[in-house]
Amino acid sequence: MDVSTRDELEHHVEAEQRVTPLELFFDLVFVFGLTQVTSLMSADPTWSGLARGMLVLAALWWAWAAYAWLTNTIDPDEGAARLAVFGAMAAMLIVGLAAPGAFDDDALLFGGAYSRFGCCTSSCTPSRPTTRTYVARSCGSLRPRSSPPD
What we know:
Elements: H1 3-12, H2 21-43, H3 47-73, H4 79-98, H5 107-123, H6 128-139
Helix pairs in contact: 2-3, 2-4, 4-5
């Protein structure tokens, strides 16, 4: 590898990003929500109970994936983003508490808290050009490469 190629590679290497204690605590809130799904499923050990549990599990998994992407895109320990993360964490704690009754008495609580989580998460989502740039970089390897000239 020649010097210019090595310099280009070093230039593109990003600084290592460490997981913050706030992110780890938020992950524990998600784990609590996931354990509550087992309460939902054990209360109704039928195929419909399994389907309900899988729906709640899918909602929690989707929320966690969105949160993980977001905290890799922004710094969750700075300014308003930190407040939004705390708001989303509180909402997800309520979602976890309401998960066992998500199809019964706690359905409104579950849905309202899940909606609040979405609002808190979207309040600190990067602007569209930044998001487009991130997606373009992530999917850049999916573009067909032109073949070298003969």
